[in-house]
Each structure stands twice: as C-alpha cells, then as structure tokens.
Write a structure and sequence with these properties.
The complex is a heterodimer of chains A (82) and B (569).
Chain A (H helix, E strand, L loop, with lengths): L10 H24 L14 H24 E2 L8
Chain B lengths: L6 H11 L7 H20 L6 E6 L2 E7 L2 H20 L9 H20 L3 H15 L1 H4 L4 H32 L11 H14 L7 H6 L7 H20 L4 H20 L3 H22 L2 H32 L15 H14 L6 H15 L5 H25 L13 H19 L2 H4 L13 H23 L10 E2 L3 H45 L11 H20 L1
Antiparallel strand pairs in B: 1-2
Classes of the chains: A mainly alpha (82), B mainly alpha (569).
Chain lengths: 82, 569
C-alpha cells in the first residue's frame, strides 16, 4: 500500500487540473443539447447517453473489479511457493 | 521486374551475420538498422499478385503470396521491427545482446514469412519458428520466473503449431490442397486450425500464456513480442475466418474480461498484456463481422496496435531499464526525472484510448460502425463498454501510476537516446495516422469509404472518454479506487500452474500408495510361500528330516502286510 506517500503532483496544480477537467465535461454535456447528433443505435437517442454510459460503465467496472480482487488476489510469491 | 527476394530471407540472412559483429558494436548497430530498412524497400517492390512457388512431395507450396492483406502486414512488420530494433540498440554484452538481437531478427523474419506464406506447411514452419525464436527474448532475462514462464510459453506455442498442422493435414486429406485460404468452421479441419490460431490470438481461456510470459520478457524483448505473435494470429484469422459469426462473440468476451483484471493488476507490463487481449478482442470481433468495412477496421486496428501498444510497452520498458521496477506499488512521480518518456507514454495512452486525432480513433470507429451497419445491436454496447474500459487501464492507469500518483522517491534519468528515438517514431506514427487516416487507408485490403471525423462522432467519443476519466478521478478522490497492492491475480494459467500440478502430485501420491500396497501384498505372499516351504523343506522340515532305515523297512512291511490282507479278503 502506498497511501502514506505524498502526491507527486502538488495540490494547487492538481486542483487546477481537476477544475479545468470539470469545465470540459460540463461543456461536453451542454454540446449534447446543441449539436444535432445522428443516431444509429436505439440507445444513442437518449439525451446525454454517452456521458452517462462512460461514467456508469467505468463505475461498474471499478466496483466489479474490487469484487474480482477478493476472489483472485493472492500473495506475490503464490506461484513461487511450490 | 518485381522484387524476387522473399521478405523473410533478408531478416534470416541478416540474423546470421549479427553474431559475427559482436566485437564491433557500432557496425552491428548499423547492420541491425539496415535489416528492416532494406527489407521495407524490398517489400515495397513486391507487386500485388506476385507468387513464389515450389514443389515438395507432390504438393505445390507457396513461399510468397503477395496480396493486399499480406502486403499490409508486411509493411506493418517492417515498421514494427524497425522501431523495436532501434529501441534495443543500446544492449550490451551483459544483456546477452547477441542472443537478443539474433533471436529478435529471426522472430521478425518469421512473422514476415508467416504472413506471406501461401500454404499451410510454409505457415506451420514460420508459426513454430515464431515461438522458438521469440522465447529467447524471455529467457535472456535470466530470472527463475522468466525461465519457467519462457518454458510454458514455448510449450503452449508448440502445441498451437501442432494443432495447426493437424488441422492442415485433415484439410489436405479432404480437399487435396494445402493452400491457406478461407476456411470456415465446417468439419474437423476448420476447428483444429481455428484452435491453433486461437492459442496465438489469446482467445479466452487460451490467453494466459500472454499475461504469463510478456511481463517476464526483457525490457526490449517484450516490445518485439508485443508486435508480432498476436498480429500474425490476427492476420491468419482475417484470411481464414472472415465472417465467422462465432468470432464476434469470442471477440466481445476478449474485449471485456481483461479490463477487469487490468484494473487490479499491479505489474504495469502485465496490465498492458491484459490491454493487448482487450485490443485483439476488437480485431477478432471485426473479423467475425466480416464485411469490407469490418475487415479494414480489424486489420487497421492491428496496424495501430503495434504502434500504440509498442509505444506503451516501450515506455514501461524504459522505466524498467532505468529503475528496475514495473510494479505500480513501487513507482510514481517519475515525470520529474523522465519528462520525455512520460510525454511519449501519454501519447501512447491517448492513442489507445481512441482520442480524436490519434490513430485508434480511426480504426476502432470502423469496427464499431461495422457492428452498427450489420445490426449487432447487443454486441455494440458491450464493445462500447470495452472501449471505455481501455481509457481506465491503458489511458490513465499506466501513465498515472508510473509517472504521477504518489511520489515513490525514485530519482532517475531519461533512458538511452535510442529508446527515446524509437518511442518518438512510434508516437509520431500514432499521431500521423490520427491526423491523416488516408496514409493507412491506402494499404488496407479493401477500398475505404469511411470518414471518422464527423461532428457527431468526435463529440460522442469525447463525451464517452471524458466521463470515463471522470469516473476514475471520482473514485480516486473518494478513495475507493483499488489500491496498488503487491500481489498476483489468479487467471486461467492457475489451471496448469497450480491445479494440474496438484492433480499430478495427488495422482503420483495415489499411484505411489497403490503401488506400495500391491508390492507389500506380493512380497507378503512370497514370504508366506517361502516360510511354508522352509517349514516343510527347511533343515527341520518334515520332508527334509533323515529317517532311520529300520523305520522304512517297518513301513514297507506294514504296506506289504496290508496288500496281502486285502488280497486274502
């Protein structure tokens, strides 16, 4: 675990990067209402489908990976032991 | 007059000279760089439709078959070999430079031989040579793990080749021809050949050689490994199994399951191994769809994968070369001392994530569009999920944990110049194809009528990526993102590394016990017989006693008296 280690990017910079990123995300959501997107798949017809899919998809990915870790994680020398 | 030199020959002859140049490193460097350059010039001279055939035991074998598909992979492998060779020029005697360089050049040559092979026998020979030559790129790392991982890698690939050969024999028996063309899944031959290809393409459950062996290779060796073996398999699938529906589903599974493992994997080169299976999943899916757009998408994604995955493996190889570490739990903060490597790694991350203006945006979009055109409405969201998953592990995790995240305290330098140049060439190629897709379109198997840069497509892709990144950032901030923990994760290789080993041990113990029981029973019986014989025939045995002559005369008289009595009666 490396929780005790200091962040390599100093806080003011990390904060600025995060705020800039949040602004970009907001603009992309607003553009969804402005741009007349063409739709090929039924799901694409939903408003803000892609942002929603990206966020929820990755959230599920991370949460399920945590469950997977409980099942499959072993000590680093697991295969060396025998 | 087209070039008549088979592309692989330049590499194999070049490799023969490499060991002779061990004492003159500068000449060897020049020689090594010249091999792919001369090879590429030779390949450019090969005209479409050119064939080089010979007769063997009544069969016509095609050493070179130059059609658009083979020529495209030929260009790709020359470019991949050039980048990887430049990346490994700094190798010294202590790195087993001669072995590494020689095996790498033979390996690249085998890949070229395989994609230009027009028949199964030639394909099989190069298929096995790929395995035999590349295993030295793992073994030369010299760690006990590398040695055993290399042995497993070799065994798996030899089995893949033998399966391919068995399929080819059945095919030759059925059709009377050894030509390697479209196969399909009708009959035993089709399944056997697919299984042979599937092992090399890292199909689900057949994939674990990749994540077992690639992280154990040398820093430079893994760059070669990432470029050739799986791409030869993708080529073979594109030629033999285009439009095979099953591959759509196989590809979808390949694209999805590794991204879960990639989230929790601590070794960053193993994470890239999972990422590679995920990317091959997109290619296999495209091959399964089988339309011209899908095949173009699949093979152009293979082309791009060599570039961006090579770039990512190179950046992690550079980190490993300079710090000796590749574990996320050991790294972090390296951007301070390796800014160029960090920048080039980020370009690789942007490329693999399919950010507009980078190469995967073009090729992955072709596969996704082909899925929609053919109305695979259930597979499309699955692949979209896999697409977003790439951003998490390859787009963010690799550069973040190596170069940013927590400060590991490691202070190092940039890698040798040749590593930076090779990464620079890879990064330039990733961006060039992103900016000018027509550079790639010109060499694809089918004519291309596809425009990736539409407002809708750019917007939706940016939305998907930004919010995928947003989710990762949120999980980091909420401190529920899986921490980097020194560990291994059980995967399909557990079956032969642990379960099979236990079965063998258990069976050995059971057979040993049964053997001991049978032996002791037999020995007991023999002892009993001996004891009985000893009792009767031993020194004191009844049959061994010395009887007095008087008693014998007495008994003879009694018997005679008995006869006499019976006669009188």
């Amino acid at each position: 675990m490396s929780d005790h280690k200091p962040n390599s990017v100093p806080p003011p910079w990390a904060g600025i990067i995060l705020i800039a990123f949040a602004v970009v995300c907001a603009i992309l959501v607003v553009l969804d209402f402005v741009v007349d997107r063409y739709v090929e798949h039924p799901l694409e017809g939903w408003t803000v489908f892609y942002p929603l899919f990206g966020f929820v998809g990755i959230s599920c990915l991370i949460l399920l990976s945590k469950v997977l870790r409980r099942l499959v994680m072993r000590r680093e020398d697991y295969y060396d032991a025998e | 007059m087209p070039s008549s030199v088979p592309p692989f020959l330049i590499f194999l002859v070049g490799a023969l000279v490499v060991p002779l140049l061990g004492r003159v490193p500068r000449v060897r460097m020049l020689w090594l760089v010249l091999i792919p350059v001369v090879g590429a010039l030779n390949a450019m001279g090969i005209e479409e439709g050119y064939q080089l055939q010979y007769e063997l035991l009544g069969y016509t074998l095609t050493l070179v078959r130059a059609d658009r598909l083979a020529i495209m992979f030929g260009h790709l492998f020359h470019l991949g070999a050039f980048i990887a060779i430049v990346y490994s020029l700094h190798l010294k005697k202590g790195d087993h430079a001669t072995v590494q360089h020689t095996s790498a050049v033979v390996y690249a040559g085998s890949a070229l031989g395989a994609v230009f092979a027009g028949d199964f026998i030639t394909l099989f020979v190069f298929w096995e040579l790929l395995a035999v030559s590349s295993v030295f790129l793992i073994w030369t790392r010299k760690t006990p793990r590398a040695v055993s991982a290399g042995m497993r890698y070799l065994l798996v690939h030899i089995v893949s080749g033998v399966t391919l050969l068995a399929g080819a024999m059945v095919h030759a028996h059925n059709t009377g021809s050894l030509e390697f063309g479209p196969m399909g899944l009708e009959g035993l031959a089709g399944w056997l050949v697919l299984l042979g290809f599937g092992v090399k393409a890292a199909f689900p459950l057949l994939h674990s050689w990749l994540i077992d062996a690639y992280p154990e290779g040398t820093p430079t060796g893994t760059v070669f490994l990432s470029a050739f073996t799986t791409k030869v398999a993708v080529y073979a699938l594109a030629r033999g199994y285009a439009g095979t529906d099953a591959l759509i589903y196989v590809g979808a599974v390949m694209a999805c399951f590794p991204i879960f493992y990639a989230v929790i994997e601590n070794d960053l080169r193993r994470t890239l191994g999972y990422s590679m299976i995920n990317q091959i999943g997109f290619m296999v899916c495209g091959i399964g769809v089988g339309t011209q757009l899908a095949i173009n998408g699949a093979v152009s994604h293979a082309f791009n994968d060599v570039l961006f995955k090579g770039l990512l493996f190179m950046s992690m190889g550079a980190v490993m070369h300079m710090t000796g570490k590749t574990k996320a739990s050991d790294l972090g903060g390296l951007y301070k001392t390796m800014p160029w490597t960090a920048t080039l790694c980020i370009i690789g991350a942007l490329s693999i994530s399919a950010v507009p203006l980078f190469n995967a945006f073009v090729s992955k979009s072709m596969i996704m569009s082909a899925l929609l055109e053919e109305h695979f409405n259930w597979i499309w969201p699955v692949m979209l999920f896999a697409s977003a998953g790439v951003v998490e592990h390859a787009g963010i995790k690799i550069p973040f944990f190596a170069f940013f995240a927590h400060d590991s305290g490691i202070r190092t330098r940039e890698p040798p110049w040749n590593m930076l140049v090779a990464m620079g060439v890879g990064a330039f190629a990733c961006m060039a194809i992103g900016w000018r897709p027509d550079l790639l379109y010109g060499i694809l198997p089918y004519a291309v009528d596809y425009e990736p840069y539409t407002a809708t497509h750019i917007l939706t892709q940016l939305q998907l990526l930004a919010f995928a990144i947003g989710a990762v950032a949120a999980f980091h901030l909420w401190k529920i993102y899986p921490a980097e923990i020194p560990s291994v994760n059980l995967d399909a290789d557990w079956v032969y590394r642990r379960a099979a080993a236990r079965v063998v041990r258990f069976t050995g113990a059971a057979v040993g016990a049964a053997d001991a029981a049978v032996r002791s029973a037999v020995v007991g019986t023999v002892r009993g017989v001996l004891r009985g014989a000893f009792r009767s025939h031993g020194p004191r045995g009844i049959l061994a006693r010395t009887w007095p002559a008087g008693s014998m005369v007495l008994w003879v008289s009694i018997i005679l008296a008995a006869f006499l009595l019976l006669e009188l009666l």
